[in-house]
Structure to design on (107 residues):
């Protein structure tokens, strides 16, 4: 009996962890989080404030660092910061970063 309970419990925990990672990112929540970014970045234009304007970011071919625009590269910039931008790796949770990326895709 015990042999069947442990594997079932392990499966249940793994399934819950996997499903929690597939929560849909929410662009509306990302917009709220982006308010702090809006101090330095325009969301409604490509004009530079302190940092680059982010309107149409996901429609561009490359980031300012020359890398292709995709979730991994945008998230890497968000995590590392640079050129006056703080690193958000430990400031925002993974879920919050996913929300910000979802919002950036709407610009």
């Amino acid at each position: 009996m015990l042999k069947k309970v442990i594997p079932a419990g392990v499966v249940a925990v793994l399934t819950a962890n996997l499903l929690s990672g597939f929560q849909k990112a929410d662009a509306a929540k990302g917009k709220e989080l982006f308010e702090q970014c809006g101090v330095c970045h325009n969301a409604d234009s490509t004009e530079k404030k302190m940092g680059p304007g982010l309107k149409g970011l996901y429609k561009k071919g490359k980031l300012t660092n020359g890398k292709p625009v995709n979730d991994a590269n945008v998230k890497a910039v968000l995590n590392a910061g640079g050129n006056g931008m703080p690193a958000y790796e430990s400031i925002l949770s993974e879920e919050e970063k996913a929300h910000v990326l979802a919002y950036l895709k709407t610009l």
